[in-house]
User: Fold this.
Amino acid sequence: MGYNLLKGKRGIIFGALDENSIAWKTAQTVHDEGGIFVLTNAPIAMRMGQIDELAKKTGSQIIPADATSVEDLDNLVEKAVEILGGKIDFVLHSIGMSVNVRKGRAYTDEKYDFTAKGWDVSALSFHKVMQSLYKADAMNEWGSIVALTYMAAQRTFPDYNDMADNKAYLESVARSFGYFFGKEKKVRVNTISQSPTATTAGQGVKGFDGFISYAEKMSPLGNATAQDCADYTVTLFSDLTRKVTMQNLFHDGGFSNTGVSQEVIEKF
Ligand code: NAI
Assistant:
């Protein structure tokens, strides 16, 4: 492929941990489309992950930032503009983590310190990222900001635990900040609601294998892969979607509008 859809555009990509990460595939695809960017992740994730390899492949610099730290984010925004040589056109927020899930706490047995930490990382961080960009006036007009979410924000998936609540908050922030960013800076803000995807974060959800197979059988087009998500995200970063904003966009092979499929009926 390669349509040069992002030629001349500059961005920040959060959340590439390893080659399975949705952000990793997105960085590669953005690179193929001519965009330039800085990569960022939490300092701890950098020690665990392979982000250096991605940086080399895409000719990018890495700026560590904990997405819950306003100080880190302000520094990231300032450095990104400096390194890339101008204001930012696209941002991908691809961050999620629930401490309750990690520690095996049920939804009915949350430890609220864990809940607050997970919410800060997975949901409030999106507001923090946008507020840093907004206050620094670091976004170009007609820029595009995307965060990744999951349908558990609308419908109950019991094992998704408190991440469901975090995603509902994240989607709301996209609408609320999208209003101000649209009015004042002509910047669009959207969330992509992605199919279950086999990544580190995805596989942390209890019963993930059953979950992903069920979604595959329920979706007329099958599950959207991480690469499909990267491709879709590129369209939202491009100039071809300039009036799409404040939306939660389902990218799930039709899962969200399917009541039941023949394959699932046949299982009974
Ligand atoms: P991943 O595990 O590869 O990516 C999650 C990233 O969040 C990691 O790079 C991690 O280092 C980063 N992160 C965690 N704490 C952070 C912090 N304090 N500051 C900065 N970064 C931090 O997994 P994946 O699946 O690529 O996740 C990306 C996004 O896609 C998440 O928002 C996730 O909820 C969402 N999503 C994933 C689905 C799946 O089934 N994998 C389905 C729908 C949405």
In short: Residues 14-15, 17, 21-23, 41-42, 45, 66-68, 94-97, 121, 148-150, 194, 196-197, 199-202 surround NAI (CB under 6 Å).
